[in-house]
Design goal:
about 150 residues, alpha+beta, Bacterial Protein-export protein SecB, four-stranded antiparallel β-sheet, 4 helices, 4 strands, about 40% helix, elongated
C-alpha cells in the first residue's frame, strides 16, 4: 500500500521529435530586408493527446512559428515534439486531463523551445526565444471554447 501511495501520478517514458521542418524560402535576399524592417512573428501552440493503452498516452506539443515582412516569408518552422507518458492507476478523469493537457506540455516545452531557437539561429535569423506558456490557462480557454460550441449546437 505504501508503494502505491509513493507512485508518482505521471511518468514520462520517452520524449522525441515526431515531425519537424524549417523553411527559409527567401534566403538570401530576406537577410538584407531584415536589416531595415522588423518581421511580424506568428506563433501557434497545440496540444494533442492520444490514448495508446490503458493509462498510457502520447502527448504531442505542436509549435508553429513564422516570420513575414509584408507578404514575404522570412521563415516557417513547425515542430511536433511528443512524449509517451504513463499515468498512475486510479487517477481521476479530471486529474488525467490536467496531467495530459497541462503538465506534460509544461515538461516538453523547454525542449521544443530550444529546437525552434536553434532552427531560427541556424537559418540565419536571431534565435526565436519563446516566452513560457501558461498551459493551465491555455487548457481552460480551450475547454471553455469547446463548452461554448457544444452549448450553441
Amino acid at each position: 500500500m505504501a508503494e502505491e501511495a509513493a507512485q508518482p501520478p505521471l511518468t514520462i517514458n520517452t520524449q522525441y521529435v515526431k515531425d519537424h521542418s524549417f523553411e527559409n524560402p527567401n534566403a538570401p535576399s530576406i537577410y538584407g530586408t531584415m536589416r531595415t524592417e522588423k518581421p511580424d512573428l506568428n506563433v501557434s501552440v497545440e496540444v494533442t493527446p492520444t490514448q495508446l493503452q490503458d493509462g498510457v498516452y502520447e502527448v504531442v506539443l505542436g509549435l508553429k512559428a513564422s516570420a513575414k515582412i509584408g507578404e514575404t516569408t522570412a521563415f516557417m518552422s513547425e515542430l511536433d515534439y511528443a512524449a509517451v507518458v504513463s499515468l498512475a492507476p486510479g487517477v481521476s478523469e479530471e486529474m488525467r486531463e490536467r496531467l495530459v493537457m497541462v503538465e506534460v506540455p509544461r515538461h516538453l516545452f523547454p525542449f521544443a523551445r530550444a529546437i525552434l531557437a536553434d532552427d531560427t539561429r541556424d537559418g540565419g535569423f536571431p534565435p526565436l526565444m519563446m516566452s513560457p506558456i501558461d498551459f493551465a490557462q491555455l487548457y481552460l480557454s480551450r475547454k471553455a471554447r469547446v463548452e461554448d460550441t457544444a452549448g450553441q449546437a
